[in-house]
Fold this sequence. Notes:
- The structure is a homotetramer.
- By secondary structure, chain A is mainly α.
- Helices cover 65% and strands 5% of the residues of chain A.
- Chain A has helices at 9-14, 19-29, 31-51, 57-69, 72-82, 85-95, 111-148, 168-190, 207-210, 214-224, 240-266, 295-307, 311-316, 329-333, 335-354, 360-374, 376-385, 391-405, 409-415, 417-424, 428-435, 444-458, and strands at residues 153-158, 161-167, 194-195, 228-229, 274-275, 357-358.
- In chain A, helix 7 packs parallel to helix 15 (335-354) and helix 12 packs antiparallel against helix 15 (335-354).
- The radius of gyration of chain A is 30 Å and the shape is elongated.
- The two termini of chain A are 42 Å apart.
- At the C-D interface, strand 1, strand 2, helix 8, helix 9 and helix 11 of C face strand 1, strand 2, helix 8, helix 9 and helix 11 of D.
Amino acid sequence: MELFDNISPLDYRYVGRDKEAAKLLAPYLSENARVHYQAQVEAALVRVLARQGICSKEIAREVEQACRRVNAEDVYKEEDRIRHDVRALVNVVRRQVSKEAKPFVHFGATSYDIVDTASALRFREASRMVLLPVLKGLEKTLIKLALRERDTVQVGRTHGQHAEPITFGFALSEYVSRLGNRIQAIDAAKDNLCGKFSGAVGAYNASSLFLKDPVAFEQALLKELGLKTGTHSTQIVEPESLIDLLNTVISTFCVLANLADDLRNLQRSEIAEIAEAFGEKQVGSSTMPHKRNPINFENVKSLWKQFMPRIVTVYLDALSDHQRDLTNSASARFLPEIFAGLYLASERLNKTLSRLVVDHANIERNFAASADSIVAEPLYILLAQHGHANAHEEVRLLTLEAKKKGKPLLGLAEAHPALSRYLKAFTPGQLAVIRDPAKYTGLASKKTVQVCQHWKKALKL
Amino acid sequence: MELFDNISPLDYRYVGRDKEAAKLLAPYLSENARVHYQAQVEAALVRVLARQGICSKEIAREVEQACRRVNAEDVYKEEDRIRHDVRALVNVVRRQVSKEAKPFVHFGATSYDIVDTASALRFREASRMVLLPVLKGLEKTLIKLALRERDTVQVGRTHGQHAEPITFGFALSEYVSRLGNRIQAIDAAKDNLCGKFSGAVGAYNASSLFLKDPVAFEQALLKELGLKTGTHSTQIVEPESLIDLLNTVISTFCVLANLADDLRNLQRSEIAEIAEAFGEKQVGSSTMPHKRNPINFENVKSLWKQFMPRIVTVYLDALSDHQRDLTNSASARFLPEIFAGLYLASERLNKTLSRLVVDHANIERNFAASADSIVAEPLYILLAQHGHANAHEEVRLLTLEAKKKGKPLLGLAEAHPALSRYLKAFTPGQLAVIRDPAKYTGLASKKTVQVCQHWKKALKL
Amino acid sequence: MELFDNISPLDYRYVGRDKEAAKLLAPYLSENARVHYQAQVEAALVRVLARQGICSKEIAREVEQACRRVNAEDVYKEEDRIRHDVRALVNVVRRQVSKEAKPFVHFGATSYDIVDTASALRFREASRMVLLPVLKGLEKTLIKLALRERDTVQVGRTHGQHAEPITFGFALSEYVSRLGNRIQAIDAAKDNLCGKFSGAVGAYNASSLFLKDPVAFEQALLKELGLKTGTHSTQIVEPESLIDLLNTVISTFCVLANLADDLRNLQRSEIAEIAEAFGEKQVGSSTMPHKRNPINFENVKSLWKQFMPRIVTVYLDALSDHQRDLTNSASARFLPEIFAGLYLASERLNKTLSRLVVDHANIERNFAASADSIVAEPLYILLAQHGHANAHEEVRLLTLEAKKKGKPLLGLAEAHPALSRYLKAFTPGQLAVIRDPAKYTGLASKKTVQVCQHWKKALKL
Amino acid sequence: MELFDNISPLDYRYVGRDKEAAKLLAPYLSENARVHYQAQVEAALVRVLARQGICSKEIAREVEQACRRVNAEDVYKEEDRIRHDVRALVNVVRRQVSKEAKPFVHFGATSYDIVDTASALRFREASRMVLLPVLKGLEKTLIKLALRERDTVQVGRTHGQHAEPITFGFALSEYVSRLGNRIQAIDAAKDNLCGKFSGAVGAYNASSLFLKDPVAFEQALLKELGLKTGTHSTQIVEPESLIDLLNTVISTFCVLANLADDLRNLQRSEIAEIAEAFGEKQVGSSTMPHKRNPINFENVKSLWKQFMPRIVTVYLDALSDHQRDLTNSASARFLPEIFAGLYLASERLNKTLSRLVVDHANIERNFAASADSIVAEPLYILLAQHGHANAHEEVRLLTLEAKKKGKPLLGLAEAHPALSRYLKAFTPGQLAVIRDPAKYTGLASKKTVQVCQHWKKALKL
């Protein structure tokens, strides 16, 4: 099988051809990883069996060593023969140990004691070693940018329309906050993943035959692996802890997609407040040599479109007949792809943001274009505060007049007989805001700093 | 508008015609509720304004009373005129207060300070007052049933095939556990809902004009309403706390749908271990008078099919341009329907389970049909424990032989020269299990009790 | 039940309060409509029975009249008593006819012979009478606008970046074409909807008892109603014809959402090429009196976010156990909402487009800003056509130089020793394009006219 | 990159390790295929250019030969350098041709003229060469089975409850019909796929520079490739024709999943009417050696759970800003996976059905268990036909009595004073049905034959 005979873009393009990504992701998300984690659970099982005196420590050591040597290729070869993947793994291990050790491989276990426990382990580690680092890296980049731009006055936009002033740093601090929140959520959710060792139907039928306290044994085994035990299991682990983790993963993806959208829009030709950096040799378009496209932001959005809907599969897999059916077997094999997808989007966003081009002149230009009408809000608020009973409507009419006559709003207000007396009561500070809308940024700068400091500390960045 | 001119089945059928449901749900999920919660936030705002000395207590009292009188009809009439829903609410309140009080209605607020805060409040209360009670009621019913049936030996089923023995109570305790877990999850998620009072673009622009510490004011207001403050907001609250709540709501729905599926399957004619109770006058089918269909379980599954995919809308709404766009305005109006859907499914499941017919004779009959082959697992485990190096394969071949010859597995094992010596080493307790598979239920009964007690205590039922 | 006690925004807001919409939609999409269509099928049944001599014409007339009098309220009252909705309908009809006629009400039918046939009828009529007219109205508006603006030179945008010139009419003609295509698709799909009259399990068991050719009878009945017969049915109609219709409905929704997005973006403050018309009394924002937001385009996008994911429910409902289960009963009741959703989005888009404000000055301004760099593409194409072997790369480097030096691209090209000789070979027409990029609109205008004429004719507008 | 370092189960397991599947799928669905199809479009372009006299035939031949030599590896290497995938392809071709030929490679084309046209070509061919053959193979197997079992009387099941009699062949003919219908739908949809050659913004800007009739040229090019031309395009082809194809693909998947569910249920231990064949050496369970699980049917359902929700991505990709954005670039790369998914499910289902074990004894046993109550429907119908005014209710009460007393329904009816006189009027044929419910199969057998013959002919099988 050649690289480009692959069907998945993860394999032939996004991970498969990116050595750095492949090196980071394969130990958790590849099929080799799946087999290795299962072997790890088998090894932990025999270790605990020995600790509880069910087999000797020599046997445990022997089995552990065999587990360490297991690889996907051997397991698949055996599966070809016997058509059962976990039994194949067991056979591969058994073949490498002494006759005395053989019975203690997979002893008292049902396949899904191994599979589900290994999955929990693997997804916890993928969260810890792949997702959290890249997301924290992105968070750091965002914090750096937000702090740097905390005083860059920018027009705030609602409905795509110029609204009240903010700073560019404040706009970025939205994502510092939302991403920080999601990093905590992934971190917490990964630690709730449960394993199991309760046998074929969850009632510890088999283990009750040879263990005094099978529940205590299960806890010992899962503790050995750093996993939680749910209050119940059937042949499989209750799906809810994994659902919760995937909700955090996919909602994090939404944060990234939203940020990518914002930046794509800020890069529009007419807005042009930011731009992706662009290599000297890079080709923007096959026919329009002048184009500079936000291809990385577009890619992030596109990955989100591919992976977000997969939550539906996750919910569908939450339903399993009685003590389990197997209708999640193929679908669950695709779960690691979601982790890979979020990694790719995060890493790309991080790289792109690290080299983000910010065009301060354009930010100023865009702000200036609306400076006059921005005055409307503080004007109406201050009129109300100074006792005008109908300030909102009055100012609304005035903005219409200003637009019609092409005159500045403030001038019209000052000339307005019914308003001018209120204006005279404004404090100098209030008047300053009215006269220079760039001062009407509220707490934008201060809040940016607070948000960044909060998350730096909370996430120990 | 007559009832049956409605388009939504919630309105013309499931809630609209069920007085009890309507009475319970309308205060949280109807349009009237939406308006009332917004008025409540306006009232809290003026209360806190008075407390901070920005307006007098008399004014606050006056506005509060006006807020209490607001109803959807008046607000809609005003919206027809001015085409802005929140401004309409404000106008309705303003009209009912003195000239002195008018400026302090909605003072310094932007629409979404009210809308999003009121939504958080409403969804928290809907969770607390609608969802948690009905789910706890269902949990209680499940616990009662599980404890009652904790010793009812039932064949466990994996892949729809008879597997190892459990008890029917143990099967139910799966749902006690999963539902208990989700109740806790909803409970926790509802308390994370955030409000905001940071103005049109989130930078406290307006409130900075007249408040020394707008962030402290925001916290005071939200504390007054029992809500949290996020680390950041734009015109709108960060969507993640609501996403997390909806993930718990929809994953709870999955638990119910799974239970409904299991029960539908157990009601199949050939299995017939349980049945929905059936009224004397009830018509099962328009042409097959003998039919007794699991229509309530089917309804639960069907509601799940309608509401589960709506998580996609929730994720789509997580993306909002810059300081917000309004592309969530219509879609978010449908969110209360998801709460109504889960309520309906829970209530119906609870009622149906309360009158569940359990056919112990059929449970026994089905178990007996597989009793012999069930022996295979304990036999292989015990052979392995007693040192047989190849027990699984040996027993697998024996089951094929048993099937071919139509002979009991145990008899073949005892007659097998290579196995009989291992069998002789079995303890009496082990032999008892091998001879009576109904004893091979492991911890099914004990675990059922543990699970029920755990959740009874954890949820204070 | 008061209007604002409703939970669905369709009922309390979007349809329920819009008299015109309610009047148009209720006859097809309300619960009353559902009952009426079922009664219509019962009436057709007895008509065909009489035609085939199974009952008398008098009986048929009697039953038909009773069917015409049926209303949802009576049916629901009866359902409360007997707990079966179709049997309730039958009872209501039976009560109103003579003893002789009673046996021929619902004669030989199973509930879903009526329910599924009535649904097919209803959705066909909803497509014909609700969707197609509003979509054709929208198409007309688009054609009018596109033709009017066919020569309005506008900068084309790819990746949000200025690309090559088009005309605004050409941009609109994209939607003329895509919407036209979808109108045809809905039209075709609605005519594929199938009914059935094959009894409880689809094998014509009951009707075989008293009809010589039950298949011919089924065809006669469905022909009477203008419906197709599938090659097979179980208790229910094969779901595929309805799936196909809903795919056309939802993909039409995607076209509308895409158009709404484009217009929202063109209304951005910095672009400002178009705007929604805005009433004199309309309030744009509760705190920013100057705001003019694209609230209608946002609403269209938002409705799409609510209804698009419901395709998942449609696919889930395609799976029904054996000769059917009932797990589509509640979910299918929500299907009419999707039709209502598309109607609302279409109607709103149509109204908004009818009063669309086009700012030609801004369109020109935006075009002018990129006029120079637009030259890059025709320049490179013509250089290539005149034999330059490396035109794309040469021009790409030149655009970088132009940007760096702030000089016009064409000037640099003419001054470039290796390029100037090619330029001299350009025809006058080619040179004209290079000198005036507004001429580089290709077939934009001509194509606009062709597209509009094609669809006008194809859809008989 | 080793096989098991891959992340996608398609690559490391389902296709990657299945030589037959890989050989069949790679030419259409792999990355190599993507590149080859793009090269094919480039070749067709130069061919048509030559035909229209824009370049010489020698040049065309030279470029065509170069196109045939293109492979993904070379293109990726070039993309690494210049960061644009289509330009990379163009460069690879250009490098291999003479200086004279270079300008005519990709002449007048924009990237997506190639990419979208190649995609349409590829998906049409994947439909034609991968999907339709495997689906027709499955259809044949179904027809064979259905015809073989057309007279096997089986109890029909609605709501999982025994209903009226059918034959097993009739149950299978449901899928003959639904699958046949979908095969036609895929076949039709694939032929609607459109290509384009209208340049960077769809207005034929570039091609207008050197072609008299660019629209005619586009048609000539697409005709050369056997593709349709839409009425409009922007930088990209209108998405609707691809959406329609994917709707047929995914709704076909639903048919397969439904069939797999039915068969899984029929394999339940208590029903046991069918079973997957099971190899002598196959291991059913790692701890329960006697288990025979419907793992292939489960796999089909599981693949459906993975691929069905991807329709959401397809709809999301239907929205592209203005003359296009690139937010479908990554997501669209995953589209071939959906084709692979349906292939895998179909092939597996076909293989499993070819060796399906049908247990006629159990089918009979299950039927016999309900034979008595089945009589209820024909009894009530015939009573009604013979003039009984209240037959349904009378029989309903009788079934309750029969159940309570444990007596046969027919006996009770004959003993019933008010019913017996109607019974006496029944014809011998009618009485035969009442006395032997196995005769009450209506047209099950006949219809099975009709359905099979219809689709055999319609699909030319």
